[in-house]
Specification:
Blueprint: E1 36-41, H1 50-57, E2 62-63, E3 66-72, H2 79-84, E4 90-94, H3 96-103, E5 108-113, E6 120-125, E7 142-144, H4 151-162, E8 171-173, H5 178-187, E9 192-196, H6 199-206, E10 209-215, H7 218-225, E11 232-237, H8 238-243, H9 245-262, H10 267-271, H11 276-279, H12 283-293, H13 305-318, H14 334-341
Parallel strand pairs: 1-3, 1-4, 7-8, 7-9
Antiparallel strand pairs: 2-3, 4-11, 5-11, 6-9, 6-10
Helix pairs in contact: 1-9, 4-13, 9-14
Length: about 350
Amino acid sequence: MKRFVMLAALLSAGSGAALAEPRLAPATTPVEASNRVVLLVDEIRAIRNFPVLVAEQLGYLREGPMAVTVVNTRNEVWHGDQLRDGRVDAVLAYWHHNIVNQAQGFRTQAIVTLGLAPGMQVLVSNRARARLHSPSDLKGARIIAGGAGSSKTTVANSLVMAGGLRPTDYVRLGTDGKEKNAALLADGGADLIVAPVPDGDYYLKRGVAHMFADRTTVDGTRAALGTAFPTSTVYMASDRIKAHPEIARLLARAFVRTLRYINTHSAEQIAALIPADVKGKDEAAYLAMLREQIGMFAADGHMPEDGARQEWRVLAAFEPEYATVKVEDTYTNRFVDEARAR
């Protein structure tokens, strides 16, 4: 069974002044089993998933008699099996899983879109900087992007395609740790690297590379690709949505409110909501990562049609079986529209 490897993505951006959404204490009243919603998260401690912690701490994951229980992913158990047999009601992970699921005959749909940027930097080595200026220059370029199905490779593919090239027009190199990657950039063994934040800062500070394309923010992503790039989503089995739309409504309302909070509060205010065991002992380092990650979520919950279609084209160019998937079947904005109307 073919699956995409999910890689951690870290982002950069600022946040605005605080506005109205109230902070609510997490509810402690017992919830009947029939009203419990289970949300599976693709590594809850990863910085890219901080919105679910914010939603939980603000009490947004509970409404009336219904409450969401957040559980962490188990690497040995595929999320699709858990959606199929009802162990979980929804999954918080990257949108491209819906393309993969549909290609395998299992219909899932994103019901709310949180991230609109991949949260990565594309850096060019000092040696190649003089000849590589834009995506159209990347024919034959050697790009450190990891595995064939990795998110970093998807970013590399989307970049070369934005330059009118094909994924086969560049040489993909595996990644072998930051020190060895830096050595390859320095000695001419690689021309570019796709790096999540804060890894990108490591290469910049080492002086072995410069920024080529900033994909850490929505604006930077649009500048590089011409569209947003859907990443973090909450999705459900399509049959489950039809049978229990109240679950989709609860989740959409919770995360629409969460996105509004994230985009109207400071990084310091958001960090104050994160449990201490997640932030770790170095709270300053966590706050720095959080500041860089926030820009990924400059969104209102809607899936942008142009961004979804463009990302599908990139995936299909690399894996032809995905070309049979109908993009419009992989997401719905219905529940976000309802949530925003409230």
